[in-house]
Design brief:
Length: about 500
């Protein structure tokens, strides 16, 4: 980026130094005109007219790309297998910039897949074994349950038979006892007579009770077998499956991570533009994150550095006019879009020694600087219209318009004079009081008009006064150069600039 030139005041100081030195060595001669009011000699004047005054900060900048991309990859530590572009190449979005060598990662992925598949196979075999254990356990339980039910049913029949026999004999005993009592015997006598039957009845009851006990035991055995489960096998299988599933999931996660890494091996352009920086070489290990820099060519803007003396005058939105060698006399226009709040660099220019090459002599022994080491601030400028002749890095002559005044009375900068008290005035030809001498020569009279200085341009200054009228002839002081400030600026600019 080119460094911005100083403001008008610094420019004029530098120019004055150049002129003084030029006069000393006889390198530059300026013609002068005498302005003796009463001598009859011709005065240097200029008609007072209206102008459009523009105050600007001039300088140089460079063409930059509005759209840029730092192409990067998150993977590092891999060799570059192939570089598909060269610095300076034009690319489109999606084009391959380079390909990383992923052979080690592919081999690692293959090993992980093999381990995962082996785990899946082992799990399938173990699950089959658990299923067989469950099947065997279920078969054994069914067999035992069937046998237990058979025993229970048999004992149930025995119990029911014994109960029926006991109840029938008990009925018979009760009937015999009732007949004896009804015949007139006492209950105790009847029981004594039926003692044999009572003993038999007791035996039948004991047989029934024993059968009942055996039946209950058989039913309990059935209930116990029915309540059995395969929790031991099922729990073991569940625990094993969870462990193996976690292992398989970890393998799959690793494979996905490796696939993601492999997917990043192909580095592509995200935008269309020119490769202006390339940081990869085939066969070399890539350890950085930025692979290349792509600068888009569909839209340009201008970057410039403004000196600290002028930066406070620059604001976002200000109009800018620009020229480049590539676009010849065509004027480009734009707007300030960004003004840095922090200095980006320091610059040094305008020393006496800087003019040695301009004047063709060694002036290093002289003292004095037109500027010191100053901080500079980045300014970005958008272009109102793109131009197909523009290229990245081209130098641009820039004028940032800080103030404008249209259709105002203005005079050359040197026509405004200052008194010791600080008041300002101009001299104009006093037409009414001008006379002719005896030889016929016109003796021009002048008068002073106090003015207020408004906006100052590079050559003209706006002046304000109720006494001013268009058409007045304004006197240009005789000690002023015949050359305009614009011409001096062009001369100095062409020789290297201030």
């Amino acid at each position: 980026m080119g460094e911005m030139k100083k403001s008008k005041k610094k420019l004029i100081i530098g120019i004055i130094i150049v002129l003084i030195i030029a006069l000393i060595i006889g390198g530059v001669v300026y013609s002068q005109k005498t302005s003796n009011k009463d001598s009859g000699e011709e005065l240097t004047t200029e008609e007072l007219t209206k102008h459009s005054i523009v105050s600007s900060v001039s300088g140089t900048g460079t063409i930059a790309a509005s759209s840029t991309e730092e192409v990067y990859t998150e993977i590092s530590g891999y060799k570059v297998q192939e570089v598909c572009v060269q610095e300076g190449d034009m690319v489109s979005a999606g084009d391959v910039i380079c390909v990383m060598d992923m052979s080690d990662v592919e081999e690692q992925k293959s090993d992980v897949i093999e381990s995962r598949d082996r785990t899946i196979w082992d799990k399938a075999e173990q699950d089959a074994d658990y299923d067989q254990q469950l099947a065997d356990s279920q078969s054994n339980r069914n067999e035992r349950l069937e046998s237990a039910k058979k025993t229970r049913d048999e004992r149930k029949k025995t119990y029911e038979s014994a109960k029926k026999d006991y109840e029938a004999y008990q009925k018979q005993y009760n009937e015999q006892k009732k007949e004896l009592v009804d015949s007139g015997q006492t209950e105790s006598a009847a029981e004594a007579q039926l003692s044999s039957m009572a003993s038999t009845l007791q035996q039948k009851k004991s047989t029934m009770d024993s059968a009942k006990t055996q039946y209950d035991t058989a039913q309990s055995q059935v209930d116990s077998i029915e309540d059995e489960n395969d929790d031991t096998i099922t729990d073991a299988k569940k625990s094993y499956d969870e462990t193996q599933d976690d292992t398989i999931e970890n393998y799959n996660d690793t494979i996905s991570d490796l696939d993601e890494t492999i997917g990043k091996a192909v580095v592509r352009a995200g935008i269309s533009g020119a490769i202006t920086e390339l940081n990869v070489q085939e066969g070399r290990t890539f350890n950085g994150s930025t692979v290349a820099l792509i600068e888009g060519l569909s839209e340009f803007y201008v970057e410039a550095n403004v000196d600290e003396y002028d930066i406070a005058d620059i604001e976002v939105g200000m109009s800018v006019v620009m020229k480049t060698d590539a676009t010849r006399d065509e004027q480009l226009t734009g707007k300030v879009t960004y003004v840095a709040v922090k200095a980006s660099q320091s610059s040094s220019s305008g020393t006496i020694a800087d003019y040695s090459s301009l004047l063709g002599t060694d002036l290093s022994g002289m003292t004095g600087n037109s500027s010191s080491n100053d901080a500079s601030y980045l300014v970005k400028i958008s272009l109102d219209d793109q131009n197909e002749r523009l290229r990245l890095g081209m130098n641009v002559q820039v004028s940032i318009i800080t103030e404008e005044a249209d259709d105002v009375l203005a005079v050359p900068y040197e026509a405004v004079q200052e008194r010791e008290d600080g008041s300002t005035f101009i001299e104009v030809v006093d037409e009414e009081n001008s006379t002719t001498d005896e030889k016929g020569n016109t003796i021009t009279k002048t008068k002073e008009i106090d003015v207020e200085v408004g906006l100052e341009g590079s050559y003209y200054s706006e002046i304000k006064s109720s006494k001013l009228k268009e058409g007045m002839k304004v006197v240009i002081p005789s000690d002023s150069s015949d050359q305009s400030v614009d011409e001096l600026l062009n001369m100095v600019g062409n020789a290297g600039g201030v």
